[in-house]
Amino acid sequence: MRILIIGGGGREHALAWKIAQSPRVSALFAAPGNPGIARHAVCVPLAADALDDLLALARRERIDLTVVGPEAPLVAGLADRFIDTGLAVFGPVAQAAAIEGSKAFAKDLMAKNAIPTARFAIFDDAARARRYCRDLGPPLVVKADGLAGGKGTIVCRTLADADDAVAACMERQTFGAAGSTVVVEEFLEGEEVSFFALANGDDALPLAAAQDHKTVFDGDQGPNTGGMGAYSPVARFGVELERGVMQTIVRPTLAALAKDGAPYRGVLFVGLMLTSEGPKVLEFNCRFGDPECQALLVRAPGDLVPLLVAAAHGGPWPAVGPWSAPASVCVTLASAGYPGTYRTGAAIEGVEAADALPGVTVFHAGTALRGGRLVTAGGRVLGVTAVADDLPTAVAHAYGATGMIRFEGMHYRKDIGKRRSA
């Protein structure tokens, strides 16, 4: 098979790393890719949102399957364009991808189909949003409706926080058009889990769960980021809980989309809160999470490609063997200032030495080559990922490898996975 991966971050590097191991793959391309992905694929300098150019590339290179990493091109209809041209794609059509592209759409779908989630209301008027915040009472959550790079969810401990969050979204337009509509919802207490399932339009196949660390500082402090690290599996998310989530959340969600004429094909990310009343949905994403994808794929069983093909073509699921590693952890190395303003172009050292350690894989997220040197090119720069027979050992290996890497202003959390590994 000739496969194209769309995207250029840590998630796409993990996908390229895993897909390149398949004996079914004869050629692998990535657009735009990054220096890490270039070790596994031919990188083509096309942006992930250049839909017409990506379609032309897939036709020119006779691509058998396109795997879409980020959410924005899916929400913009990339899968629709490929399917209309007769090309197979792993990723949902725009109408189904709206489950991530619009939080209001997702909340309405859940409300109509009795899918457990937080109480909420949707507003396009700031004054009405503030009044509802007072009706609901803190703590509460204000969410920008559209795509905001993982940063559009604001936890508000006081009404002053809520007023400022509404202002940030709707008046200061911190998230652009994505914040012109907001969802205000109750704050759920419990343990947060990211659960992933594959869908082929008719059926769903559970994969695994991971736990992300969203805030930028240790102890879950500071503003939300795109993700500062993840580990897998999650001790509380056992077989019975997975079965219940598939029955009460995943399959009803997919059935609702199919009933509305948008059968879902790809991976469904279910952000869950494990509350005292049972699992409730925090959010849906229409793609693999980042950095959860890195933590999942280093321990995923066997050949990933047949699963991707089955999802894209709507075929039966192939047999899935045992997971290859009992535990994994990914530590994100970020630029100073992230998720706010940060500098790029800092020289990176030590990646090859860290990557050579047993059980360690370093995934590139925001890197570039300048004059033959590896430099920073994003807020999240690298994902240092390790597997082991148990989570504490995986954590130790990941941080041991992290200590070998250096770049000016390098920042990372010191507590990834340690809540559950101590």
What keywords describe this structure?
422 residues, alpha+beta, Rossmann fold, Dna Ligase, domain 1, D-amino Acid Aminotransferase, Chain A, domain 1, 4 domains, eight-stranded antiparallel sheet, five-stranded parallel sheet, 21 strands, 28% strand, globular
Q: Could you provide a short overview of the structure?
A:
By secondary structure, the chain is α+β, with helices and mostly antiparallel strands.
List the helices and strands and how they pair.
Elements (H helix, E strand, L loop, with lengths): L1 E6 L2 H10 L7 E6 L9 E2 L7 H10 L4 E4 L3 H4 L2 H7 L4 E2 L3 H8 L1 H10 L7 E4 L2 H11 L3 E5 L8 E4 L2 H13 L10 E5 L4 E10 L3 E9 L2 E3 L3 E4 L4 E4 L6 H21 L5 E11 L2 E8 L6 H6 L7 H9 L13 E8 L16 H5 L4 E5 L2 E4 L2 E4 L3 E9 L2 H12 L15 H4 L1
Parallel strand pairs: 1-2, 1-4, 2-3, 4-5
Antiparallel strand pairs: 6-9, 7-8, 7-9, 10-11, 10-15, 11-14, 12-13, 14-17, 15-16, 17-21, 18-21, 19-20
Helix pairs in contact: 5-6, 7-8
What does this structure look like?
This protein has an eight-stranded antiparallel β-sheet with strand order 16-15-10-11-14-17-21-18. Strands 3-2-1-4-5 form a five-stranded parallel β-sheet. It folds into four domains: 2-93, 3-Layer(aba) Sandwich (Rossmann fold); 125-180, ATP-grasp fold, A domain (Dna Ligase, domain 1, 2-Layer Sandwich); 191-313, ATP-grasp fold, B domain (D-amino Acid Aminotransferase, Chain A, domain 1); 327-421, Glycinamide Ribonucleotide Synthetase, Chain A, domain 4. 51% of the residues are buried. The model has no long low-confidence stretch (mean pLDDT 96). Helix 5 (94-101) crosses helix 6 (103-112) and helix 7 runs antiparallel to helix 8. With 422 residues, the chain is an alpha+beta fold. The chain has helices at 10-19, 51-60, 72-75, 78-84, 94-101, 103-112, 126-136, 159-171, 239-259, 292-297, 305-313, 351-355, 391-402, 418-421; strands at residues 2-7, 27-32, 42-43, 65-68, 89-90, 120-123, 140-144, 153-156, 182-186, 191-200, 204-212, 215-217, 221-224, 229-232, 265-275, 278-285, 327-334, 360-364, 367-370, 373-376, 380-388. It is 31% helix and 28% strand.
